[in-house]
Amino acid sequence: MMIRGALNIKKLLAAMGRLDASDLHIKVGIPPTYRIGGELRPIEADPVSEDEADHLLDPLLTEVQKKKFEETGDLDFAWHIEDPDGGPGDRFRINMLRSGNHTHAAIRRVKAEIPSYAELHLPKVYSDIVHRERDGLVLIVGVTGSGKSSTLAAMLDEINATRAVNIITIEDPVEYRFIPKQSIISQREIGIDVTDFHEALRHVVRQDPDVIFIGELRDQETVLSAIQAAETGHLVFATLHTSDTMGAFGRMLEFFPQDERTFIRNSLAATLKAICAQRLVPSNDEQTGTKVVPAVEVLLTSPTVRELIRDERDSDLPAVIATSREDGMVLFTHYFAELVNKEWVTMQTAREYAPNRDMLNSILKGVEVKAANLVGRLKG
Fold this sequence. Notes:
single chain, alpha/beta, Beta-Lactamase, Rossmann fold, 2 domains, 7-stranded mixed sheet, 6-stranded antiparallel sheet, globular
């Protein structure tokens, strides 16, 4: 892959749109590298030196940010490229870190336009959650790069378009910029509008919110604040770094000492409305028009689910999800079967990514048998 002419950061960032790259890595010791369709692809260039990395990244940083990076070795911020034709331009989420005393920047392209559910290829249950819930806690979970931010942007913008409410977001950094429609929206960025998550969360309930978005549940205080806000009549959205719906409980509980976990479980059982887990997988772009689509797992609360959460029976939740498809719940493996049947992903991709390959094979075999029987009846 070639980038013509002398390298500079604006040229590298501008190429992301043309290449449909989700990420750009600038790291000392390797050439600038894009992630395209889930795969890392270096450009045709020499490995970046320390001086070259500093030269490339320097235009992105304020003096305050440079000082913070020198002191901490880690920095998160957003950056925007203006469109000379007056369009929305491009936004980027940037994480810089020190690795082996060298600089590494991971830069994610955030499309300026807030995507729709259809553009993200998300199932209808996401919209159902938005229209149904007025309070409680909704979690969008997944590993880094699983599309959580885009999903939440679509959900929040649907609220913005359909309800007259006060929405407050707490983000590090702000990624998508919302334009108020029916709602009032205030987006608070850590390090710019407020010092940290803890300070923002201490004040948020005094700001008359109906809907609160917490960029990430990352410690005991953010989890407690989310639960307390949900308990007092607010609709709270948050992200959590974990791979599936069941892992969300262990992830949150590990922030607390053992003697407090029963209380937290009871609070989650009372306030939780949904956990939506997702991961991005390579897609058949002829069918989807995109290189990746989300595979999802959805847990919705019910009296049975709340009882299982209180009783520490997380391992029984998959059975409830598997038998509650009509309610909108779905396991990852069942959803992979749906993706194959839609021809959005190949059988090989589904088998590579599905958590339970034997279950996937059984589901798909059952579909093939039904299809063969139908063809036989039609011919008869």
